[in-house]
Batch of 4 targets.
Target 1
Amino acid sequence: MKKWLNALERHLYKYNIPPIMKYLVFAMGGVFVLDLFMVMTTAYTTHINLISYMTLDVTMVLQGQVWRLLTWLIVPNQDNMLWMALSLYFYYFIGTALESRWGARRFLIFFVIGAIANIAAAFLSHAITGYGYGVNTYLYFSLFLAFAALYPDMQFMLFFVLPIKAKWLAAVDLVYFLMAIVMGGVSLRMAAIASLVNILLFFGEDIWQTGRRMYFQWQRRRQFRR
């Protein structure tokens, strides 16, 4: 799989691809501010819900609103201004760190694979249940899983007080994925599963090798105790 990813990355060398994460973050922040401004200026009139025209609603896409296949990527996933600001900063930090480590082309491949998987999952949900929608939350969470795989010992200040390593935050992140897969509706389950596709493609071999190595070490310790 890594050979295929490397070949795809080399194919993109002929294109001048800039880092995209800062544009995604600024666009998401702009949508949040614009929607907030529209709420404030239409307090006594009918409010136009901008975000409702940007979400990945498969029914609307099939009716011709094809722009939703792109705009869902910059739909804000927080309602509170403070949490939105923290989320944007976090996405920017994680995304730009991955772009610096991988390069803009490889990061683009990772992000696009996750986006396409989520779109496919939304359409599959629509085919199964008659409705389907996509959310970008788990796609952006997958960026942190990739970050934690590359920088497992990077420390973050949880609640600005408690130091915690990225690998433990990634474990919490995986629990959040698991809860969505087990307890969520069809569309939410598929979105969570689809957002792990890029992780498996990029890190699946490493995860497999690490698992084998841990298993063999466990076997040797068991034999030694015997």
Note: The domain at 2-225 is CATH 1.20.1540.10 (Rhomboid-like fold).
Target 2
Amino acid sequence: MCGVCYNTTMETRIVAFDVGDKRIGVAYSDPFGSYAVPGETYFRTGNFSADVKAVAAIAKLRNAQAIVCGLPLNADGTESVQTQKTRRFAEALKAETAIPVAFEDERYTTLAARRDLVASGVSAKRDKRKKAVDSLAATYILEAYLAEIKREREHMSTEMKEESNDYEDENIVELVDDDGNTFRFEHLLTFEYRNEWYVALTQIDGENAEEVAEDEDDEGEEVAIYHLVGEGEDEHLETIEDDELLDEVFAEFTAQYEDFEDADEAAELEPDGE
């Protein structure tokens, strides 16, 4: 494997907004669109146009490829005054930025956020607690949206596998190493271990990939695991130099991958011996 640091060139980062009259909660995904992270809370100024521009700037700062706005529906699914306010804000956002804007049902996200903050024992001043609720609600909105995308991809994958054994395009990422060389990988899983985030990939082209493909006696598919560090434009993947840590992270990946995919398939995976 070339280099020790990779920058992602094909991102699927998504930003979610929980639009309220006074505050707008923010959440964003990792570069592979696998998990949601609570972000800042934007306090509205009372100037509609200024608020739209500010929220569009947040999406741009996060390098978002898509925006999701929570849609506050009534319990029976009908629309309310707040629904129309959110739709108006989203339409203005569409006009302000070229980033696609979608909606996600948010009927129960704020209640769930408040419940989880209480369950976790969060005790803070009222304004800080409200900020936490807003960002957590936005996180739940984004998680629901990502889960929906995952279901759609799994459905499409099932149909595609019946016709072809080709790689799924949505799981393919291109990474650029320190020397400017580009490599294509299949993204297997983004996962957390000890409050740090890691990405498991398997190379599908390049010199190393060809060697693996030619070795018919290879015991299993090689997996390269990288540390996901930095934020925004500075976010990149770094190789794990500590062999003991790499073993621990690989064990965690295997355990999570068994739950996420197929246990038999996970048992055949082996770490890339860099």
Note: Residues 19 and 236 are 30 Å apart (CA to CA).
Target 3
Amino acid sequence: MDAIFKALNDPARRDILDSLRKKDGQTLSDLEGQFEMTRFGVMKHLGVLEEAKLITTKKVGRFKHHYLNALPLQEVIDRWIEPLLAKPAARGLLDLKQQLEGAAEMSKPDFRMETYIQCTQDALWEALTDPDAITKWHFMCEKVTREGNTYTYHMPGGNVMLICTETLQEPKTRIVSTFEPKWDETIRASRFEYLIAPQGEFCRLTVEHYDLNFPVVEGEGIADGWVRMFAGLKTYLETGSTVKYADPEMGG
């Protein structure tokens, strides 16, 4: 918490966060031209923001891209601002983040599956979080776009299939995310969790899906979708091949 307040105390760092909010994924060179300071000065501010986990980074080739990470700010709101604003009518919204993060420990998943993939922990993490990588193994999606912590899954033709917003990341080990189906408006939003555990030259990947409002039937619906996704992910990571394990009856 101290690191967050230290990072936000400087107006230059707040300006950098504002710039990333407007355009995520900028490099040091992209940011350097926007501020009246040296390249080293911008780099130093980025280091403080990264240490406070207010930004995350991804290196592509020789370029390092910077992304706004709003989750630590939500923790500040929960601790310091929420008690001043909370009213019974608004309580559900203010508690959403806590419910999403803690529910997996307090309730039983409606669906759970695990597999073993011969790959590194870094490779698996990238495959689960990089939009371009997801399109290579997702059984139905032609394109995945990302804005902040929200991923939008597009089917062939451009229709939105699914929207997922990450509410918690424990780098390389755990992701908690919402699951908002758009292929059927009668299906309410739920949540799922990825758990990664390295096992020597393999990784064990577990998915747990919560808050489903219908029975999970093996070989159908949500359960079938997860099987197809894990099959595509395993093939992609172990062979480098892109295989879409789509149901022909769904037009895949």
Note: The CA atoms of residues 176 and 193 lie 4 Å apart.
Target 4
Amino acid sequence: MKIDTQSFKTYSAKPKEVERKWYIADAEGQTLGRFASRIAHVLRGKHKPQFTPHIDTGDFVVVINADKIRVTGNKASQKEYYHNTQYPGGARFEKYKTILATKPEKIVEEAVRGMLPHNSLGRDLFRKLKVYAGAAHPHAAQNPEPLQLN
């Protein structure tokens, strides 16, 4: 039996063909890692049938109630965030509890950023993430749909 290989074509999405939607995700009571993984999945576009690894096929995500996210185990007291100023002795460490009290958006942003590609595509994908500590957000005009998390 001979198979006609001309009829099988690999589809590759073009940037102008991608239709973007807006989603809203409520972080209240969600576990940080699982929540961030689902957000990264939608930002990347892996939930769409036309996903193409090297093209931005993802959607916009608005995260609300970032100050009510939770972590499991002893992470609330032990987890540290590392930053280096690139000067000698410039290593900086911040505890999870400190960041949650001062800038809770950073916790979700850092978790999602670590799950995106570490290149220019990942930086473009990250710009489509909007995180807010409370329930109020300025993106009502985009009519975001609720994101189903499982």
Note: The CA atoms of residues 43 and 58 lie 5 Å apart.
